[in-house]
Amino acid sequence: MTKRVVLIGHPVAHSLSGAMQQAAFDARGIDAAYELWDRAPIDLPDAITEIRGDDFLGANVTIPHKERVVPLIDRLTEEAHATGAVNTITREGRRLVGHNTDVPGFSAALDKLVGRAKMPRQAVVLGAGGGARAVVYGLIREGFTRIVVFNRHLHRAEGLVKHFGRSASHMELRAMPWHPSIIESELTKSKILVNATSIGLTDDESPIPAEVLASELLVLDLIYNRTRLLRDAQSAGATAQDGETMLLHQGAAAFTLWTGQPAPLDIMGEALAAARAGGLRSAEGEPAGDESTEPAGDGGITAASG
Ligand code: NDP
């Protein structure tokens, strides 16, 4: 019987996970199909009931369900519990286990961004949604001593800080109002800037003015494209990296959880690059000459290397 893995989101039509996971199943000779389920929030409980069946290996969960799905799951891993968000589900019989593979995905992206340099200890995070929770938890676990979170709706950033109260008790985690001059001031004290908002995903906007980006900054945008923020960062001489490494590694971790097998990272990376090349704003679809404008070092805007 062909096993099933589903991505539950709303919408899911533009997800790159399908190409990446199907290529991995095929490469490992696993008889499984990755399906995209577009489910409105009201239909989420029924979808979760359905995946308890024997034909399912598990699921991915994406916007807007990552936090909403938590109470519908029987057991959470430490990362899912700490972040309050689930992006991967596995089955133990009819019981469901919730994981957050965005956390190891982010850690892989952070390692690549920093490269051989010393790991910084201060970071600015833009956004306070599910992605930002994985980022903040990854930074806390990495040993960052100061993290400032900016969000358009301040109360959500404050909620995030409160959520991490206990895990962040040994360090400084602060929510601040979304104001360019405050962001600029915080950036002078930080080496790492992470964009975990969706600004730049469907438009050519940047969350912050180009002038506040200094050449010493390491900038990570969770968005998979070469966003305006990343282009501005490059123009300022900063090191810039998009969200592909995070996407690849969260997917690889999910694959291993469903199948018990090591993920074929190269094949998944190639499938991701091919799927992106067909997209309008994909980095790989742009002229190869673009690469030469990247700053030297490990953190350029790169295709996933695994
Ligand atoms: P959420 O919907 O949970 O959060 C969206 C965030 O973006 C919120 O902080 C929201 O602020 C902010 N935002 C949206 N529009 C605006 C705007 N016009 N002005 C200011 N702030 C805005 O999404 P996720 O956290 O799940 O995802 C965020 C981004 O990260 C997405 O682009 C997603 O694709 C990417 N991502 C990438 C991953 C990867 O593997 N590379 C993994 C996870 C996410 P507010 O709360 O005020 O509305």
* Helical residue percent band: 25-40%
- Approximately how much beta-strand content do the residues carry? 15-25%
Q: Mean pLDDT, rounded to whole units?
A: 90
Q: How many H/I helical runs?
A: 10
- Low-pLDDT sequence parts: 280-306
Strand order of the largest sheet: 2-1-3-5-6-4
Cα-to-Cα separation, first versus last residue: 31 Å
* Major pleated sheet: 6 strands, mixed
Task: Give a quick precis of the structure.
The protein is of the alpha/beta class. The chain has helices at 17-27, 44-50, 78-83, 102-114, 130-142, 154-163, 180-187, 228-235, 244-259, 265-277; strands at residues 3-9, 32-38, 56-61, 75-76, 88-92, 95-99, 122-126, 146-151, 172-177, 192-195, 218-221, 239-241.
Set down the secondary structure blueprint.
Blueprint: E1 3-9, H1 17-27, E2 32-38, H2 44-50, E3 56-61, E4 75-76, H3 78-83, E5 88-92, E6 95-99, H4 102-114, E7 122-126, H5 130-142, E8 146-151, H6 154-163, E9 172-177, H7 180-187, E10 192-195, E11 218-221, H8 228-235, E12 239-241, H9 244-259, H10 265-277
Parallel strand pairs: 1-2, 1-3, 4-6, 7-8, 7-10, 8-9, 10-11, 11-12
Antiparallel strand pairs: 3-5, 5-6
This protein binds NADPH dihydro-nicotinamide-adenine-dinucleotide phosphate.
Residues 63, 102, 105, 127-132, 151-153, 156, 196-199, 201, 222-224, 243, 246-247, 250 line the site of NADPH dihydro-nicotinamide-adenine-dinucleotide phosphate (NDP).
